[in-house]
Amino acid sequence: MTIPRARSRVLIPASIWFLLFLTFISSARATIQYEVLLEHPEKHLFHVTMTIPEVTGEVIVRMPAWNTLYQIRDFSSHVQQVEAFAGSQKAFIEKVDKQTWRIKGSGTIKISYGTYWDETGPFASQLNAEHAFINPAMILFYVLARRGEEVELTVNFSSAIWSAAGALLHTSFVSGRNHVDTFRAPNYDELADGPIEIGKIEVFELPEVTPPVTVVVHGENWRKKVVEENLRRICKYELKLMDDAPFERYTFIIHFGRGAGGGGMEHANSTAIGAYSDEYLANVAAHEFFHLWNVKRIRPATLYPVDDTKEQYTRALWFAEGVTNSYASYTLVRSGIWSKEQFYADLGDQITELEGRLANRWQSAEQSSLDAWLEKYPLYNQPEFSVSYYTKGQVLGDLLDILIRDRTGNEKSLDDVMRSMNAHFAKQGKTYRDSLDVRLTAESVAGGSFEEFFAKYVAGTEPFPYQQILALAGLALRTTEHRRPALGFSMEHEQNGPFVVNSVDSEGPAAAAGLRAGDVIVNWDGGEAPRRVDRWLQEQSAGDSLKLRVRREDKELTIEFRLGEIKETLYQVVEDPRPSEKARHIREGMLRGETSVAVVH
Ligand SMILES: [Zn+2]
Q1: Which listed site, 15, 170, 252, 396, has its alpha carbon 20 to 30 Å from 318?
Q2: 47-51, 232-236, 304-308, 428-432: which range is least confident on average?
Q3: Do strands 126-127 and 107-116 pair parallel, antiparallel, or not at all (unpaired)?
Q4: Cis omega before residue 305 (within 30°)?
Q5: How far apart are CA 394 and CA 276, in angstroms?
Q6: What is the pLDDT of residues 557-570, one digit of tens each?
Q7: 495: confidence class by pLDDT, cuts 50, 70, 90
């Protein structure tokens, strides 16, 4: 017999260990337990056994319809072979709706099932020969009436090189190649909010940051020095900015490399980030770390409590996501990761992106937030159908900041709005009433009304008065006209699948030649369709011909047309060489994150 020995006690100081031990003894019987086996990773199937103690008569379990992304993804569609047992006997189990099961029985009920996941990125779950990444809400049922009870997740796997890490309290036992890692949380929602990485990982702590911040990295294409230094600057700056550190320990789980996916996902005490290389990390990390306050603790009333059975509508994402973007860019320039030229270039790019979208004329920042649930449809993301609340919200955040600084002679800023919302909502355990409380907080910080600004630019779709507001910060907006060839349609492909046309510009030459949404591209100018069509377009000119062979239903046809032309306006944010003294202070204040007025000579 081999007795498992504790190899490491990851992330738990001795005093907490003792408390945990006591808690574990006193509540072990009532804890809802999950055991997840990672056998045959190449089959991508998590084997889950859920143990529910003290059931009387029946129990109802459910799988969330959404988590992490504001998209209904129906995680129950990944589930197979659900069985239930009361003691050693099979128990009666029936499906109630697409995501809910009812089990009859008493005492301890065990439910077993498999769930298939092989999707890359921080919003997904994956089990393959490379690693396992788990967003617990995507693989674990919860007990409908007992969602608030203590839970424990044990992951079993066999490997000589893999180990497990996550944001939750965690114990790790290793015997030979066998690993047993146990994560505990006071309830299902906190378990669901702690992603887990299992694989060949590197773990280190950021120097000079308190409370401690742990970094867990999987993948290649990264330099430890760069990652450590950028994250250190980001965390230090944002902790100072908010004058608050609402966590005992924070964990960055980062996947680098070609197959790492992109983007990041915020959690209460951690984030999961996917990036091609360390070059792309800083902006995402600055955004995700700021979510520690904005959205995870400064929470809109419309998103809490969470209803994961159906769409949860909110008009606040322009603030929760967009203004978090404003703070990512502020953090990068104020901590010296970006130069001020990079800051201006980013703001110019955001304005170009926003103004280049036809939908900007009719979709407000609030409506874009409300319609987040449509983002899973590629057509909706086209410029004629939507604007991004990230982009529109980021620009709104910067403009509002300038107005607050101007109104108060640079004594107050958007930083004060964030700190005030943290003090009055997050720290009081209260949610805020979407745009209304953002406006009221901005008004109390700056004095006077922002009613017109919110009515016109947040709830409404009036064109933003860029020149007028930027001038208050000694900045100006320059435009240049740019012409580029246009494909006249968009396309997408499943992993390793062929490209499929998903929308056709009705005014363009591709439409006139007969191309339709749904056409499968089998040949592109005698070869394969380019994987990066934006790069391909850079080498073409308007008027060049393109010959496509497409499959439509069971027929193949050839469609030939000439590339059209798009006129594009590029926006550039530049410094006014002779700003007023006040405007110069506001500009410096924004770039440095300062509010005090400098001595006037
Ligand atoms: Zn975000």
Answers
A1: 252
A2: 304-308
A3: unpaired
A4: yes
A5: 24
A6: 999 999 998 888 99
A7: low
Distance from C-alpha of 154 to C-alpha of 182, rounded to nearest angstrom:
4
Bond before 13 cis per omega within 30 degrees: no
Half-sphere exposure of residue 240, counting CA atoms within 13 Å on the CB side? 14
Question: What tokens appear for 426 in the block?
Answer: 């997050």
Which residue has 């949610």 as its token pair?
Answer: 431
CB atoms within 10 A of CB 467: 10
Q: How far is the CA of 232 from the centre of ligand 1 (A)?
A: 20
Counting residues of the chain whose pLDDT is more than 90, the rounded percentage is: 83
The 3-state DSSP class for residue 357 equals coil
Judge whether 596 and 585 are in contact, CB under 8 Å: no
| Per-residue pLDDT at 231 exceeds 90 | yes
- Start-to-end CA distance of the chain, whole Å, equals 82
| pLDDT tens per residue, range 151-209 | 999 999 999 999 999 999 899 999 999 999 999 999 999 999 999 999 999 999 999 99
| 94 φ, ψ (degrees, to nearest 5) | -140, 155
Give yes or no for a contact between 334 and 237, defined as CB atoms under 8 angstroms apart. Answer: yes
Structure tokens at 83: 């069985």
Cα 265 to ligand 1 centroid, rounded to whole Å: 7
The rounded Å distance from CA 69 to ligand 1 centre is 10
pLDDT-derived band of residue 10, with 50, 70 and 90 as boundaries?
very low
Ligand 1 centroid distance, CA of 397 (Å): 14
Phi, psi (degrees; rounded to nearest 5) at 301: -60, -30
Residue 94, strand partner residues: 102
In this prediction, residue 17 has a pLDDT band, given cuts at 50, 70 and 90, of: very low
Which of these, 195, 335, 181, lies nearest to 269 by C-alpha position? 195
Burial 293-303 (b: 16+ CB within 10 A, else e): bbbbbbbbbbb
Question: SS3 of 539, please?
Answer: coil
Q: Flag whether pLDDT at 262 surpasses 50.
A: yes
- 98/114 Cα distance (integer angstroms): 16
- Calculate how far, in angstroms, residue 283's C-alpha sits from the geometric centre of ligand 1: 11
Ligand 1 geometric centre to CA of 585 (Å)? 30
What pTM, to 2 d.p., does this model score?
0.88
Q: Which residues pair with 156 in a beta bridge?
A: 37, 180
- Unique residue bearing structure tokens 């909110």: 314
CA gap 396, 350 in Å, rounded = 11
Cα distance between residue 420 and residue 444, in whole Å = 9
Phi-psi region for residue 556, left (φ > 0), alpha (ψ -120 to 50) or beta? beta
Report the separation in Å between the CA atom of 318 and the middle of ligand 1, taken as the mean of its atom positions: 10
70 CA distance to ligand 1 middle (Å):
11
Element (H, E) at 289: helix 281-290
Q: Which two tokens stand for residue 255?
A: 């996947």
